[in-house]
Amino acid sequence: MRPRFFLAEAVRSIRSNMALALAATVTVLIAIFVLGAFIPSFLYVQSAVDRQKEKIDVSVYISDSAEVDQVNALQAQISGLEEQGVVREFTYVSKDDALAAMRERLDDPTILEELPSNPFPASFEVKLTDPENADEVIVAVEEQPALDPDEGIGFAGDTADRLLSVAQFIQWSGLALILILTVAAVLLIGNTIRLSIFARRREVEVMKLVGATNWFIRWPFVIEGIICGLVGALLSVGLLLAVKLAVVDRLVDDASSQLTEEQTTSIGFVTLAVILLAAGAALGALGSGLTLRRFLRV
Question: What residue numbers bound the domain in which 292 lies?
Answer without folding.
Answer: 3-52+162-296
